[in-house]
Amino acid sequence: MEILKFIFYLGIIYAIFGLLWSIINFLYKSMRGNPSKIETVFLQGLGYYFLASLTVTYLFNPFNLTEHDSGSYAFMVLGGIVLYFYLLSKLNKKKNIVTLFGNQSAPSMTKIDKLVEVILIVITLLFYLFTLLFPEIANHAVNNWFYTKIQLIYDTVLLNFIFGIIGIVFLIRILFQGMASSGFALNLITGNQTDSWSTKNSKDSDHYDDYEIVDEDVQEDSSSNLLN
Questions:
Q1: Per-residue pLDDT tens for 119-133?
Q2: Nearest-angstrom CA–CA distance, 125 and 122
Q3: Quick one: residue 120, left, alpha or beta (phi over 0 = left, psi -120 to 50 = alpha)?
Q4: CA distance between the termini of the chain
Q5: 84, 128 contact by CB (below 8 A)
Q6: What is the domain partition of the chain in residue ranges?
Q7: How far apart are CA 48 and CA 55, in angstroms?
Q8: 114 or 115: whose pLDDT is higher?
Q9: Interior/surface letters 168-200, b for 16+ CB within 10 angstroms, e for the rest
Q10: pLDDT: is 141 or 1 the higher one?
Q11: CB–CB of 146/70 below 8 Å?
């Protein structure tokens, strides 16, 4: 039961952070205009950094009434697995975006190379492991601000109920998409492709790279409506 609660609350943390981060991205792009490829990769990597930091912060300082031992090895491993599945679920989404937009994807969109995405995920997981050894790394003003805001948002009566539902759906989707993405990510790392992927997407490599930007833009449009 404690395992399910742990995963559930991690899902809430990821969901609320995703909302806050999409608002920050929207405000940044509103002021800067179209970001360069380097800026886009930096923002994505920074978001992953905070996801890893918040996961470690929750491990050592849970904000709910869970009974799991603070910093126990079992939950350290579980936290890494959930983070791993969540990051890989982002890779899996790109195929759906390609199918949805097809050749209508804007050619002016900044592209993130497939290899860069995989490298970002690997670096994030390595940073997670390093932060487990030295948790004080995650104890800084910006990370603590995010963690405090997440607690305040979740403790709001109506939002508590809404994010409770989102937490369940969100984590179920993450686990299924993450498991489905594992084999796909291994293909990216090794350079091998399944027959179905290679035959279907030999002409779609450019659209594949557009995924992350399209996904962020969708989130930012929602954020702009929220701000208005």
A1: 999 999 999 999 999
A2: 5
A3: alpha
A4: 40
A5: no
A6: 2-227
A7: 11
A8: 115
A9: eebbeebbebbeebeebbeebeeeeeeeeeeee
A10: 141
A11: no
**70 neighbors 183 (Cβ within 8 angstroms):** no
Which range of 14-23, 172-181, 197-206 scores highest in mean pLDDT? It is 14-23
CA torsion sign for 117, 210, 53, 28 is positive
- For the chain, percent of residues with pLDDT exceeding 70: 62
Tokens (6 digits) for 84: 């791993």
CA separation, residue 84 to residues 20, 53, 175, 222 (Å): 21, 14, 10, 26
> What are the distances in angstroms from CA 12 to CA 9, 123, 172?
5, 23, 12
Q: At what angle do helices 73-101 and 2-32 cross, to 10 degrees?
A: 50
Please tell me the least confidently modeled range out of 78-82, 89-93, 224-228: 224-228
- Confidence check: pLDDT of 199 > 90: no
Contact between 94 and 216 under an 8 Å Cβ cutoff? The reply is no
Give me the chain's average pLDDT, please. 75
